[in-house]
Amino acid sequence: MGNIDAPEFLHEDEQRLLMEPTARSETRIEGAGWWRRPASRTHLAFLYVTNVVTLLILLSEIMARPRPVFGDFYSPAGHLIKYKETVFLDNIYQLSPFQGPPDETKDTMWDLLYRTAADAKGLPNRTMVLPGTDGDGIISLEVFHQLHCLNSLRKSLYPERFPDYSVFFPNHTRDPGMSVHHDHCIDRLRQGVMCASDLGAMYWTWNEHRRMWRPNMSTTHMCRNFEDIRQWAVAHNLPNWDETVPSRLTD
């Protein structure tokens, strides 16, 4: 005898599917008194793709945000940071205004880069309270220290113009004090370069004249807006400060 609930000519598997429709299309929630239909594969795939796309968008936005070198450390000039694309000069075939033998114009340009000072509250390292104030601190931004070091090394290349920066005395014996200062400056700049770790790509091209591969140094970099930072430091300059007056550490 055939099954009374299904035609005899149906395959056994087809009969089972007809006789047990709820086995695959619905699931009873125990104790709930209602039924839930499982999500279709199309619906699940749609949700998966949507979630993946949303996650990728969020990650791209996070990665696109510029991150300050000082991380979570406070800097009184941190609010000034903006970024802009800057093409570096070749420095061999395209001299900048700061390059070449020194003269009054170049010396003034170098001095104006870092002859500044600033304020200091909330810094990761404590600083000294300015005498005669209610707790104002004294700091200088690291960028200006590094520029001072760089300018000192520049001056050491021209002892005839800057004898005080030469590592040799007039009798050609080495000046130990200036040697220590230059050594300090070189390592300070090393630390600064490694800290910033500029990832601008310097690409190589074939030089037909030299018959060899040569680097193209006129490359694009993402730079901070130095002039805004310098102007802020100038506005917060501390004139006529007597460095010989003692003080105390900030709280």
Report the biggest beta sheet as strand number plus sense, adding barrel if it closes.
Answer: 2 strands, antiparallel
Average of the residue pLDDT scores: 73
Evaluate the radius of gyration.
35 Å
Structural class: alpha+beta
How many DSSP helices?
7
Give the strand order of the largest sheet, numbering strands 1, 2, ... along the chain. Answer: 1-2
What is the terminal-to-terminal distance?
A: 98 Å
Shape: extended
- In N-to-C order, the SSE pattern is HHEEHEHHHEEEH
The number of E-state strands comes to 6
Roughly what percent helix?
Answer: 25-40%
Q: Uncertain spans, ≥5 residues at pLDDT below 50? A: 1-7, 14-35, 62-70, 117-127
Would you write up a description of this structure?
Strand 1 and strand 2 (34-36) form a beta hairpin. The chain has helices at residues 12-19, 22-25, 41-64, 104-114, 142-156, 176-196, 226-235, and strands at residues 27-29, 34-36, 83-87, 204-207, 212-215, 220-224. Residues 1-7, 14-35, 62-70 and 117-127 have low confidence and may be disordered. It starts with 11 loop residues before the first helix and ends in a 16-residue tail after the last helix. Helix 4 (104-114) packs antiparallel against helix 5 and helix 5 (142-156) packs across helix 6. Among the domains are: 12-64, no CATH class; 98-197 and 225-235, no CATH class. The protein is α+β, with helices and mostly antiparallel strands and 251 residues long. A two-stranded antiparallel sheet has the order 1-2. A two-stranded antiparallel sheet has the order 3-6. The protein has a two-stranded antiparallel ribbon with strand order 4-5.
